[in-house]
Amino acid sequence: MKARLMFRDRDLDPAATLPWNGDELSADLELAGVVEAMARGDELVASVARTALLTGPGNDIATIRFRQAVLGDVLASPGALRALYEIAGSAAQHAPPAQRSSLARFPDWVVRSAIPTVEALLATMERLRDAAASHHASLASEGLTRLSSALARDLDRDYCADVRRHLRRLRFPEGILIGAGLGPGNRSAGHVLLEPPGRREELWITRYPWLIRLIERVTGLEFDPFSFTLDPLDHGNAQALASLQNRGLAPVATALGEAGEHMVKFLGDLRAELAFYVGALNLHETLSGMGVATAMPVPGAGPGMLSFSGLRDAALALRLGRRVVANDLDADGRSLIFVTGANQGGKSTLLRAIGLAQLMMQSGLFVTADAFTASLTDGLATHYRREEDAAMKSGKLDEELARMSRIIDHMTPDGMILFNESFAATNEREGSEIARQIMTALLARKRRMIAVSHLYELTRGFVELGRDDVLFLRAERLEDGSRTFRIVPGEPLASSFAADLFQEIFGSGSRPPPG
Asked: pLDDT by residue (tens digit) across 471-495?
């Protein structure tokens, strides 16, 4: 039995290799805030959520839609999901005894210890079956419907009763009966556990009570045809008897151990896959409580698709604990998007919102938008301006170029790069020329880019080229200098808004110098 709630045809790998730039993506897109909201202190949810988000660019459309369907069931019946997660988690305390003691090399000990473990795990599986069955009629997703059906089919009541009956017999209330043959040197061989002897009345000797009385009269001892007694000091025969018993019980011990391990693994795998949806439910509840709208995104089947309405930055909303400004965009067919305008106008927020929405969509989550459609990317990279680092062994420009080189080395055919004030560590002419050459080369290879930039020479140069695959956006600024934090279509402006910068540095009551 397999959980398979994350992939249609394979299990989730919680230890999957993260992308080469996972830490940079997490920092630049403020992924930690999203993961924290999903986890609510649950370490397993946090681990699975982070892995799922960062490895999302490796998923295809079928996987995304498969997860979206499961998530739809989860959002419709949140109580059922939490119940399944809690039940699966209760199995963590039931480790197969073979993994917990040095006595595991003795089959008789393994059998005695494994029976209560298997009984407890079976009870957990039955609870899981009943919880899934109670919601089966309302399920629509392939993943949860398949799981519920498998639990009902493979753990029906007759089967579970049969298992319990076998477990009771393995306590050997009538004693242990082991058969063997003769091997080389007249040694016993082929030890096998046989059916218990059953009731004494069924054995032939019990039909002749006079024979038992005769034996007792002759020997002067009480005769029991079902037992014999070893001298307490006869250690050799005691060891021989224990060895015979263990050889007969070895196959049973192996079977019980494997049964316990299989159930523990299934419940552990199921809990890990449910953890992703628990995180999604937690995040949805948090965002809904703040009035932030969410929607199931539509993964685009073709290249160059990006359009949305009402997109909000999930990380910013979670950090502030309230709704934030939403933006609309239709950038289908555009390979390069420039976002320019005054500082503190919402440019970096939009860039982060798009990056987060892309990861959330490709991991199978909803996005914080009214509607969102985008082509899939098989690799997402960020090239953000970094703060000065005293430990840097080279200049900031060298560091930026080294990071850009790493991105190019890892760039995939359907990759996307988010630039945020890149190459601003040098003068505008040099920075613009470096960025122009890099972006032109990437456009020639049909790579997608979104760039927040103050390099006017760079952006103006692309305006003059008049390319159809380049879109220009600008942070909206009203006539009185106030920001709406909305990003609207617009070509870059030559103004650097010096008055805004002067008031930002010296205070709103100050007046900038003339000219």
From this structure: 999 999 888 878 899 999 999 988 6
- In a domain, residue 204? The reply is yes
The half-sphere exposure of 33 on its side-chain side, counting CA atoms within 13 A, is: 18
* CB 53 within 8 Å of CB 360: yes
Tokens of 287: 């965002």
Q: What span, in angstroms and rounded, lies between the C-alpha atoms of 133 and 139? A: 10
Here the CATH number for the domain that contains residue 415 is 3.40.50.300
Rounded-to-integer distance, Cα 370 and Cα 293, Å: 6
Residues in the chain: 515
Tell me the residue range of the domain where 300 lies: 294-506
User: Which residues lie below 8 Å from residue 418, measured CB to CB, with a gap of 6+?
Assistant: 28, 351, 354, 355, 380, 381, 382, 383, 384, 449, 450, 451
Name 308's bridge partners: 329, 372
Do 136 and 216 fall into the same domain?
no
Strand order in the sheet with 298-300: 298-300, 371-375, 306-311, 327-330
Question: With 0-12 CB in 10 A as exposed, 13-18 as middle and 19+ as buried, what is 387?
Answer: exposed
For residue 450, give the H/E element and its range: strand 448-452
Same domain, 45 and 29: yes
The verdict on 325 and 277 lying in the same domain is no
Q: What is the pLDDT of residues 122-133, one digit of tens each?
A: 999 999 999 999
Does the pTM of the predicted model rise above 0.90? no
- Give bridge partners of residue 488 from the DSSP assignment: 474
Helix (H, G, I), strand (E, B) or coil at 25: helix
Residue 142 φ/ψ, nearest 5 degrees? -65, -40
Judged against a pLDDT cut of 70, whether residue 439 lies above it is answered with yes
Cα torsion at 202, 205, 206, 208 (round to 10°)? Answer: 130
Shared-domain flag, residues 356 and 377 = yes
Same domain, 167 and 184: no
Q: Which has more confidence, 125 or 199?
A: 125
Distance from C-alpha of 476 to C-alpha of 473, rounded to nearest angstrom: 9
Q: What is the DSSP letter of 367?
A: B
Q: Is 174 helix (H, G, I), strand (E, B) or coil?
A: coil
User: Tokens 């956006």 map to which residue?
Assistant: 473
Q: Tell me, what DSSP letter sits at residue 345?
A: S
